[in-house]
UniProtKB/TrEMBL annotation:
It is a single-pass membrane protein. It is found in: Cell inner membrane; Cell membrane. GO terms for biological process: bacterial-type flagellum-dependent cell motility; chemotaxis. Controls the rotational direction of flagella during chemotaxis. Keywords: Cell inner membrane, Cell membrane, Cell projection, Chemotaxis, Cilium, Flagellar rotation, Flagellum, Membrane, Transmembrane, Transmembrane helix. This is Flagellar protein FliL. Pfam families: FliL. InterPro entries: FliL. Belongs to the FliL family. The chain crosses the membrane at residues 23-46. One of its GO terms (cellular component) is bacterial-type flagellum basal body.
Amino acid sequence: MAKALELPAPADSAPAREGSLRWLLTLGLLTLLSAAIGGGFGLVMVSGIEKRVEEKYKALPEKPEVASPYAGNIGIKKLAPVVTNLAASNEDWVRVEASIVYKMNEEQNPDVMAGEIRQDILAYLRTLSLAQIQGPSGLLHLREDLNERVKLRSKGVIQELVLETLIVQ
């Protein structure tokens, strides 16, 4: 009797497939298990943080609402545009349009105050140079200076000077 030659099992044989299938199933099971544990841990952490935040905000006193400075009996009056040249220059011109916010029912007439304020703005602008009003900080300083002059001139009747436009040519 002749002995049959035994050939090595091909790689696609059942035992090799079974081992790789077990390995893939184990890997998939471990991945699902780690995702479930991570998700559960995340939920526990989030709920703990939410509880701490709620406790912290319950412990804080409630802030009272800040009353608007424009509440009450106030009015607004638009000033006539102010056009003038800047200091030490015949070429640099500025045009300012503004409004005043004032307390109504005071002794002073708002039309008279508007005329005086317009004169103050004109006089102040003639003292400025172009470099003083350039950029955001220059505009902020101009606004603060004009508001201060307006409040002093009106003895507190005018609450604010609102700059509507500022054009420099």
